[in-house]
Write a structure and sequence with these properties.
globular; 23 strands; 35% helix; alpha+beta; Rossmann fold; Dna Ligase, domain 1; five-stranded parallel β-sheet
Length: 468
Amino acid sequence: MEKVFVANRGEIATSIIRSAKKAGLKTKALWVKGDPSFHRQIADELVITESANVLLNAKAIVEAADGCNYLHPGYGFLGESHLLYYEAKLRGITPFMPDENVILFGLNKLLFWKELERQKLPVLPFFEKVVRSTTELKEAANIVGFPLVLKSNIGCGGKAIAIVENEEQLYEKFLTVQRTSTILFDSGDIVVQKFAKGDVISVAVLSDGNDLFILPPTKSILFRKFQKLATSTEVSSSVARKVEKLTRSILANHRFKGIVEIEFIESEGELYPIELNPRLPSDYHIINAALQDDIVFWAIKAHLGEKVKINTRKEKECVWFKVYAEDVLNNNQPVPDFIEKVVVPHFRNLRWYPSVTYPSKLPISFEALIGVAVAVEDTMEAAKDSAIQILSEIIVTGVPTNKTLIKAALMNKSLEEVISEIEELEIYAAIGSALHDYFSINATKPINVSRTNWKDLNKFKAMFISRI
């Protein structure tokens, strides 16, 4: 039986392993000692290492993949690494990544924007050279104007990016972005583009080398450090048609196997392509839920030379979010501490994908992701309501989480407003616990008061006030 090496960890490695097994492949994965990542429990083989740095080293990863036919990098930094692609090819291992032309087309932002310009497709104003010095930076800022965005030309994974509102911020942010780009991507080449406020729309595209399958687009609800934290399938049919038309134009001259993602910004009625990411989108679970299918499985099938047979019609409306161990009152700083317990409600409309096992200690060397959730419903209103309820019902003890931050975004409220409401409802929960024998929602059913049940608490609050 052929074997695939999974060069990632957490929920993405877990999903790849499951999809690869479904596709008939044996699986081998990397595990760093002390990492509570869930994937270590289901891989057929493990390569055990002491250092987390291996997961960022293309040569080390390919060496660990010895004996495998294929390599899957997942999403993020490795998913877009042309070095990993070349190293795997040199070792005779087939990477489950688009071909090198698509990878380089996506990684080189300036090349991507110039291609949009050549095709007369919409593109935000940009400086037509890479910027390496403060002299070039000043020229670029004068041409593009403020606000603008600075990015590493070959950066990925939401790293080495900064929004600059005015000239006072320009040089300091440029030096920070350039320093980060040099450390992470071994390149100080920075590109400058006009910044536009609007909704970020993303679309995943699946291909078997012949046909393009444009999957349901998603809209970002919340970003943290330029990375998706919550998204939904709330994209109108008219915008979805525009996305599909632009996507087919962008990829018209590119044949590939597997999956890529294109990001757009919808600003003032116009849709602007921003980036092409040559890898699996980070919110792929929401697409799986919307389609009631498995796009990771079909991408693997495409790489194995089989024809993709996927229905691209959206079957469900969904909200997707990531639950992290972090302090939302301290600039969302990660809290790599001991997770005592995670309780996830058994709702029919909830898909939960754990990143780590518990109880466990979250290592400081990895992101403090606890798990990924998708609320799945027939309507978007119901999906948002369900997501809010799920956030209220998920219980994590031992570490603070970002649940309140996501809930605030879904409710279109500030973080402070939601924290205040939670504190108020906790008071009513305490009252309800003491008085549940005397008050009821109807004549026969006592109120079900729970500190985590948002809807029941709001019902009790309204009922209690009305009876005073």
